[in-house]
Write a structure and sequence with these properties.
elongated; 34 helices; 614 residues; mainly alpha
């Protein structure tokens, strides 16, 4: 093995995900919050009450002493209005402003900030804000911090407890363990695991044996503690990531392994020296594809630890020229969490053309995934996008939210667009609640249709999902509505659609159809299903024997012209009576005359005319 190979092998052994430097707790805990999302459906009680003194959390260990003249007890030097902070244009700015306040915060002001955090909008912002506050709280009085954290739901409480123990262990490990010995065993299995991991990471200089003894002391499962030690070992930071960067780039046969190594080093550089240093290194890579791929991977990984607004802000400032595709990727991912915030953030992009394209990307993602939300906030979008957003949004909505789409139909001015939306709406409505969709169709008999479209054609988009299970309810619903001007009801269409999946049940329900053209039409639809199954006119003729004699010829006058021209012409000689043949022939001749492309030759037309009677 060459010296270069040995260096590469050693480097691959060292290059593990560098997740945390001095800010270990923030990275891991925010990542855990994003994974488990404990802020959903929260009912947070953040006002300190007398109940806290009766908490199950033991209080016999003295809090960390804070000198009376310490600035942290003198109150903040600036306003504690949290709302004004979180309303800053970017997450980055609000995080810095909150840090500035926390430098001089006392216990009461921390409780006030936690109370105000109930009004913070957005999961990411809420997570970040409370994480910052509780880390500061832990440095002033960890016992009070734990007691106050108990006012939160269990999963949030145990997460905040891990933050507190992390900070406490850095300051005074012995005090933290004395307290944890009585407190941690009462936590859930997940809570104990989270806390012991943070203690392990804070006490990084201890041997593995000493850490396992701590875990045993806190009644943590030995398999859990061993697993956590292995995990932490993989997370150990590189001692000198910049030197490792140079060494990887010096490898002649640069491939996928080296790209992965650069990604891990890039994460380490950001943790150790910040985004600017990483940008300096990344922008120096000459190969554009390698550079863009690296920046995208590293910044994508940072989304596990940093708010996306912060990552986007850095990407915009540091990589606007060298890796624009990364901006588009981040903008798209931002839409999954807070599309309106993402759109607002695009206004900070200085270059007009780039800003416009990023806005278009955000709007497209928003429309595709949350059409109801974007249509409800249409007035908040730039004026130049509203028309195209409405058009795209209503189409997307017809697929995702068909019932709600019906409320927007009157706002669609183009008849053809309106027809297409209704067609798609009813198709998707049938998949969710066919009875509800059918009722809407029956309740709206005066819908406007473009030329060549009909109400009967529209309902087919809904009734293709008729089954033996839902057909009886749809049938009864149709009977509740009056027949149309042709004295037909829609129950016949239900039976015709049912015949495709359950012929026996469709035939059994035929007698329940109201008298009139609707019953004959149902027979015609069933006849087509029968014919398509065996291509035999004999089976169809057998079906018509159930009809009154005067309706049999009418049946074939409707049935035959609905076949393909070639098949219809071939079958006309097989019809049972001259009256049936005359009705069918007349229908085929009329159809041929109305068609722009006559399917029959002169000889065939002459043959059809031979069936006509006076």
């Amino acid at each position: 093995m060459t010296n270069q190979d040995r260096r590469n092998s050693a480097l691959r052994f060292q290059l593990v995900p560098y997740l945390i430097g001095t800010g270990l707790s923030f990275v891991l805990c925010v990542g855990a919050l994003i994974l488990f999302n404990p802020f959903d459906n929260e009912g947070v009680r953040t006002t300190s009450t007398a109940e806290e003194s009766a908490s199950d959390t033991p209080h016999h260990v003295a809090p960390i002493a804070v000198p009376e003249n310490d600035e942290s007890n003198q109150g903040p030097r600036r306003s504690l209005n949290l709302a004004s902070i979180v309303e800053m244009p970017t997450f980055f700015e609000s995080s810095l402003a909150l840090d500035d306040i926390l430098k001089n915060a006392n216990l009461q002001s921390l409780k006030t900030l936690l109370d105000e955090s109930r009004d913070v909008q957005g999961v990411e912002r809420l997570q970040s804000t409370r994480t910052q506050i509780f880390r500061k709280f832990a440095t002033l009085d960890p016992i009070q911090a734990l007691s106050y954290a108990e006012s939160f739901p269990k999963n949030q409480y145990e997460h905040f407890a891990s933050l507190i123990y992390r900070e406490w262990s850095v300051i005074d490990l012995d005090d933290a363990l004395n307290f944890a010995e009585q407190h941690v065993p009462s936590l859930s299995r997940e809570g104990k695991s989270t806390v012991i991991e943070q203690i392990f990471r804070a006490a990084w200089e201890l041997s593995d044996d000493a850490k396992l003894q701590i875990a045993e002391r806190l009644q943590v499962n030995p398999y859990t503690s061993t697993f956590l030690l292995e995990k932490i070992e993989r997370d150990k930071p590189l001692d000198n990531p910049i030197e490792a960067w140079k060494e990887v780039l010096s490898i002649e046969n640069f491939g996928d392994d080296e790209r992965f190594q650069l990604q891990q080093i890039g994460m380490a550089v950001i943790e150790k020296d910040g985004y600017s240093k990483f940008a300096e290194l990344a922008n120096s890579i000459q190969d554009r594809r390698t550079r863009t791929d690296l920046i995208g991977r590293v910044l994508g990984n940072r989304l596990d630890t940093d708010e996306i607004g912060v990552v986007f802000e850095h990407a915009l400032q540091l990589f606007q020229e060298s890796a624009r595709p990364v901006l588009f990727e981040l903008a798209g991912r931002w839409c999954f969490t807070d599309p309106l915030a993402a759109l607002n953030a695009m206004t900070n992009v200085p270059e007009d053309r780039l800003r416009k394209r990023l806005e278009e990307r955000v709007i497209k993602y928003w429309v595709d995934r949350r059409p109801m939300e974007v249509l409800a906030q249409l007035d908040m979008l730039p004026v130049e996008y509203r028309e195209v957003v409405f058009s795209a949004g209503i189409w997307s909505m017809s697929a995702l939210h068909p019932k709600e789409t019906s409320e927007y139909l009157d706002k669609i001015s183009d008849p053809e667009t309106k027809w297409n939306v209704m067609w798609n709406m009813l198709q998707n409505w049938a998949a969710r609640d066919i009875e509800e969709g059918f009722k809407w169709f029956l309740d709206n008999p005066d819908l406007d249709f473009p030329a060549g479209r009909s109400r009967e054609t529209l309902v087919s988009s809904l009734l293709f999902r008729v089954t033996s299970e839902n057909a009886p309810a749809l049938f009864e619903l149709a009977l509740e509505y009056p027949t149309d001007e042709s004295e037909s009801g829609w129950e016949g269409r239900v039976i015709g659609a049912l015949a495709r999946t359950d012929m026996a049940k469709a035939k059994d329900m035929l007698p329940q159809i109201r008298e009139g053209p609707g019953r004959l039409n149902a027979y015609v639809m069933i006849g087509h299903v029968i014919f398509n199954q065996d291509q035999s006119m004999n089976s169809v003729i057998e079906l018509t024997e159930e009809l009154p004699e005067e309706d049999q010829a009418k049946f074939f006058g409707q049935f035959v012209p609905r076949l393909s021209p070639r098949v219809a012409y071939e079958q006309i000689d097989k019809l049972p009576t001259p009256e049936a043949q005359a009705k069918a022939a007349f229908g085929l001749i009329q159809r041929a005359k109305e068609s722009s492309n006559n399917p029959y030759t002169d000889e065939q037309i002459e043959h059809l005319e031979s069936f006509l009677t006076d």
